[in-house]
Amino acid sequence: MIKKFLKSVFRKPIKTKSIGNAQVISFKAHGVSSDHISYGSLKVTDGLQAAGYQAYVVGGAVRDLLLGRIPKDFDIATDATPEEVRKVFRRSRIIGRRFQLVHVMFGEEVVEVSTFRRMIEAEDAQTDEHGRLLRDNEFGDMEQDAARRDFTANALFYDPTTQEIFDYHGGYADTRNHLLRIIGDPLVRYREDPVRMLRAVRLSAKLGIKLDAATAAPIAEMKNLLDNVPQARLLDEVLKMLLSGHSVECIQHLRKMNLHHGLLPLLDVILEQPMGEKFIMLALRNTDERLSQDKTVSPAFLFAALLWHEVLGAWNLRVKQGGRPVGAMHEAMDEVLARQKKQLAIPHRQDAVMKEIWLMQQRFEQRSGQRPYRLLEQPRFRAGFDFLLLRCASGEVDDALGLWWDEFQDASEERRAEMLQPEGAGEKKRRRKPRKKKAANETSGEKSAVDELPATSEPSA
Ligand code: ATP
Ligand code: MG
To answer: Of the residues 157, 169, 199, 234, which should be mutated to test ligand 1's pocket, given the most ligand atoms within 8 Å of the CB?
Structure first.
């Protein structure tokens, strides 16, 4: 069906008329029916138009539909002010202080409505000393709203009533040609908002479309401008990359553009750990797969994976110096989190879950007595187990451990009892001090130290 839809979209020659400075592309030419627009968005555009306002579906949704993809969400742009939108829909609320938007609720669906904005003229604009725009919230008209958007493909307006697309910047042709092109002068636009460089990489990777040469060219020279962007915003964008469902392609694109070096501490962590790279790429691939199957993924799980080999390194060092494994793990976790906190802006609220996942890894080694039963009852057992499987797949721990837990979880009581390892084996291990020989091996892999965990290594937290 998608194929048929794609064909219908791409076979037709572009047939346009102009209204003002916009090219208007008819349904006959583009083939995107309003049937593809969500129920809530149709209600919003209908409601606003009935009240005498302009209202269009805009941005990523129009682009995605033209590319034959199912949009993640639908944004609406209108000439009504937030207060006016609020008056049209009873179940709505204004959000944001500086950049006000309206959320209109239809059952489960929340439709985001924004008022047309304009780019502030250079002389009036508030920028930092590098030209980054600090303010961008003046209302404007539809044409001005198109001009302030980042890429031509993101600046298309779709009217569900007439099924026409309004295009001010050649975004329709670009999208048909699978090209992501920045609007205006790339140097100016990246200076205004350096995050657009990351968006260029993420969107081209996610959509599988090419970055226009002039759009790509200045990125290598301008990437240092990202240093001036607030950490929280960068982290947001990096998370979007990692959770885009195409994180592996995003990372590959970043590498190809030589953007990975010093771009962001978080990405450096990902890309510059030779030992952890395999594990991390597996974690990202796994995340992409989960997303493609509509499963949930948690940022904490991803952060835990990104930092795992650092934790492991710090832990091994301590164990080698004679530290007790559990205590050493707590110290290692705190050390890595404290170090990363300075650079990565990982929110504190993620710490507890990350630690739980890491601590569980020690407990998976203990397969005697009541311990495996207690571990199964952990609310985050599933996340811990998924993490263990990644470690197995990356060759860090023996597959047998993952297989054991895979079976144990769903086994009958009798089978579970059979599977348990004798207490004695664990006891022996507990008394054994970390051996020098094993410690010497640790540079070639962390498995040895994990295998040495005592049977009693219960997390103290
Ligand atoms: P996605 O499918 O990942 O949501 P998107 O293009 O919809 O992609 P959003 O972050 O949801 O991305 O942004 C919605 C729209 O807002 C974009 O399509 C674009 O028109 C505009 N936009 C977003 N970020 C910027 C930016 N940094 N500069 C200019 N315009 C932007
Ligand atoms: Mg979007």
So the answer is: 199
